[in-house]
Amino acid sequence: MRMRYRAILSDLERFRCLARDDIAAIHFRGNKVPIKATNEVMRRLRDRGEVELVTTTTPYVYAVKPSPLRKDSQKVPHYLAIAGVYREMLRIGPPRIFQVEPKYGKGLPEPDIFTIWAGRAFWIEVQRNVFSAQVWQGKFQRYINFFRNGRWREESWQPKDKKVFPYVLILSSNRVFVPNDLLFPVLQGKSISELFTESKIHKTS
Q: What is the C-alpha separation between 166 and 62, in angstroms, rounded?
């Protein structure tokens, strides 16, 4: 199988699903006609039985076959929003690590993304819906639990000389109340591009 086919299938597994335009932006950025190239490759992968359509609206949304998502799953827009964050990062500079919905255990954080990008580690909450203060209190408590138990120091990506607790980054159109007494930094904004433009995120070596 061609390397590009394998890379696309790997990303479909990582992101759960991707829209045609996501695939074009991620895998065909250097192509003269990225949409055309994407359509041709995805048609071949469908013919081979490697991928299937999650939605029949255009542009199509694809997943590996068999799909981990139902065609009417309410999670599809959520996963596409996560892919959108990745695309934003690529425009500025590719992340070193980008994990979708990493698992840490019961009572611990359930972020949408863990990433190392712009020289820093982030847990990212991608919020398309408005959550109550009580829901956010529960989310922050899970990060506090993780901070206090110290197991984050054992993550494989941690530098050897200085262990770091990632920034918590909230991407939402609605402002979230963040308690002042948290033991770790929290950033929030509408998009990665907005935060980078406003210099709340700086590239480091």
A: 31
Question: Which amino acid belongs to residue 4?
Answer: R
| Chain mean position to CA 192 | 11
Average pLDDT, rounded, for the chain: 92
Domain ranges of the chain: 3-69, 79-197
Average pLDDT of the segment spanning 95-124: 96
CATH number of 3-69: 1.10.10.10
How many angstroms separate the most distant Cα atoms in the chain?
Answer: 55
Return the axis-axis angle of helices 34-47 and 20-27, rounded to nearest 10°: 110
Tokens of 77: 């827009």
User: What CATH code is assigned to 79-197?
Assistant: 3.40.1350
39-54 per-position pLDDT tens digit:
999 999 999 999 999 9
Whole-prediction pTM: 0.92
With helix as H, strand as E and coil as C, how does 105-161 read? CCCCCCCCEEEEECCEEEEEEEECCCCCHHHHHHHHHHHHHHHHHCHHHHCCCCCCC
